[in-house]
Amino acid sequence: MYMDENSRLIAGTESMPLYLRVLETFRDRLFRGIWKPGDMLPTENELSEELGVSSGTIRRAILSLVQEGQISRRPGKGSFVTRISSQASLARFFRFRESDTGESSPTEIRVAGISVLPEAPKMVAEKLGVRRTTKVLKVQRLLLMAGKSVCTYTSYMPYNLVAGLENTDLTSNRLYLLIEEATGNHVVRAEEMLRANIATPEDAALLGIDAGMPVILIERTAYTHNDKIIEWRQTVGRSDEFSYKIRLP
Amino acid sequence: MYMDENSRLIAGTESMPLYLRVLETFRDRLFRGIWKPGDMLPTENELSEELGVSSGTIRRAILSLVQEGQISRRPGKGSFVTRISSQASLARFFRFRESDTGESSPTEIRVAGISVLPEAPKMVAEKLGVRRTTKVLKVQRLLLMAGKSVCTYTSYMPYNLVAGLENTDLTSNRLYLLIEEATGNHVVRAEEMLRANIATPEDAALLGIDAGMPVILIERTAYTHNDKIIEWRQTVGRSDEFSYKIRLP
DNA sequence: CAGTGGTCTAGACCACTAT
DNA sequence: TAGTGGTCTAGACCACTGT
């Protein structure tokens, strides 16, 4: 078998092992949105033929993406691009304090406010990477567990990317699915940062605690294809009601 | 090739795929301390012969452990049981605020106090899972960056597991290596929990901040072989100096 | 040099999912 | 029944590490 000069493996990776070149090729397709969340990938055999690589090597690259959570596979069905879920964030690491009986309580989302801002506040413009003259959608929501407020979500989105979303029922913790349905734009990945803080009077009012109590503050930036920012969100959580847990190594 | 009834794969896994049975077997050896941190594993071929399984299957099981960080492999040398490092905790997710120049600053550990408690305080006894009559070593340390206090570490250890450690130079962020050298006991894994809190007067004094400021509080439980608890630690960090960062999915 | 892990292939067999 | 991914094997070749 000879080296294919017209290889569809992406350029600039010639010195890498084959399975990494394949992996980079797949990453590129995800990044460009050629493979979108929910899509089924070509089968191993098809990819193997297309790229001129053994199916074992294809499998290896795909399994890396499965490890990262970008792809999920279902036996007998196929491989699919993962939809990022709210599950991916808090629920992966955070354990909400369980009730006295040890059961996990039912959750509820309540919308506290929706508004279209004709101009982006300075901070928001910076975080979203847009001009101050950009129209922005602001959504404020509340997460309740067993009827008690646990945390608040305040989201800012460039209006042109989510136009129409404000007329949707946002009482759901699957915001990104709603965005997808309303606008066709997919959220591909997100980054979060966590700090400790003290509840502002507004936080306190929404959460039903005293101002000055400690809260956990999470800042999230969510991206569509090509690294465009589609949402900037602040989560403020009662520290007595949820905490973060991890296992090492 | 026939099924070996005297297989050295651990019992109770007969219905699993082979590579998972091998994985469980390896986990068991790590758990029991048959393979200790720093040890070199038998080679793939040796394991393949010993368990009567192809080397590809052995490799697959080992790679899972590499993924988890339990094993590290060095080409041309061998596979080794990982030593848990301080790196594994904070440094993996936390980004300390970089200095104005963007460089990362040098760190320094200062010992703020060492004492052997003849009795375990109630809370400590609970966290360590020992009787209140148990002798406990308490070590309090301070992490400085660029001369500024960033966080405090307060550790409690059952004295019988770390006897002699109090006569060591603890000015190092590799506590577990010191324990290993002083006593031969290995720290195998740890769990951490994070909350927001408000600085107590003691915290504030050590960190050089005002009482009432928000702090991040991390509680850590570290284990030796057989799930015995060897350390319980509280870390208190200035929230303005470090924050937690993660990428999804 | 011999021995280690790292890459890559080819192919057999299985279990699950659709139609 | 045809097609998917899941498991398992066997073996070739390579790069790196020690002596």
Question: What do you see in this structure?
Answer:
The structure is a homodimer of 249-residue chains. Chain A has helices at residues 18-32, 44-51, 55-68, 90-93, 122-128, 159-162, 175-183, 201-207; strands spanning 71-74, 78-81, 94-96, 107-117, 136-145, 148-158, 189-198, 214-223, 229-238, 242-248. By secondary structure, the first copy, chain A, is an alpha+beta fold. In chain A, strands 4-5-6-9-8-7 form a six-stranded antiparallel β-sheet. Chain A has a two-stranded antiparallel sheet with strand order 1-2. In chain A, strands 3-10 form a two-stranded antiparallel ribbon. The N and C termini of chain A lie far apart (43 Å). Chain A binds chain B through residues 67-70, 82, 84, 88-89, 93, 189-198, 212-217, 239, 243-249, and chain B through 67-70, 82, 84, 88-89, 93, 189-198, 212-217, 239, 243-249. Strand 7 of chain A pairs antiparallel with strand 10 of chain B. Chain A binds a DNA duplex (19 and 19 nucleotides) through residues 17-19, 43-45, 53-57, 59-60, 73-79.
Provide a short characterization of the protein structure.
Chain A has 8 helices and 10 strands. Chain A has 249 residues and is an alpha+beta fold.
Mean pLDDT, all residues of chain A: 84
Structural class by helix and strand composition of chain A: alpha+beta
Order of the strands making up the biggest sheet of chain A: 4-5-6-9-8-7
Number of strands of chain A: 10
H/E series of chain A, N to C? HHHEEHEEHEEHHEHEEE
Shape of chain A: elongated
**Total count of helical runs of at least 4 residues of chain A:** 8
By oligomeric state, this entry counts as: homodimer
Largest sheet descriptor of chain A = 6 strands, antiparallel
Helix content of chain A: 25-40%
Distance between the termini of chain A: 43 Å
**Biggest protein-protein contact in the assembly:** A-B, 33 and 33 residues
Give start-end ranges of low-pLDDT stretches of chain A.
1-5, 97-103
Rg from alpha-carbon coordinates of chain A: 21 Å
The fraction of residues in strands of chain A falls at 25-35%
